[in-house]
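Students often ask why we bother encoding 3D structure as a string. The short answer is that it lets us treat folding as translation between two languages. Here is a chain of 138 residues written in the first language.
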Amino acid sequence: MQSDPILLVIALFAVLWALAVTARSRAAHRRCQELVARHSAPALATAAQEERGEHMSAVDARLVELEQRLRRLGEQQKKPAVRDTMHPHYEPAIRLARKGADVDELVATCGLARGEAELIALMHHRKDTSAATARNAT
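And here it is in the second language, the structure alphabet:
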């Protein structure tokens, strides 16, 4: 029976030792977490700042690109548009109208619609022909 109290004391010491080791381990674990948190927070903040910086750099680059494109478009709008889409029949019709051809001649010779021929005749008849036509009309 005497061995029972000794075993009890040994078991009690073992339990106390296990509790002490566990408490010490938990305290060490908490200190490690605190150290990691203390040292990781600035590192995480720095990493977040770097990521924001990279994102802002990309946004800045895109903004510069858009400003350049806008400037180019503005310059293009200031330049007069070159219109070289004149119908091939208009040039001979204009020459004939300047020589005094009437609307019927332009329609027959150049294959223009009557409205086109009237417009060309109106715009390109010689001044003396236009003046004579205007006098005859009144």
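Translate back mentally: Residues 90-126 form one domain. Keep this in mind for the problem set.
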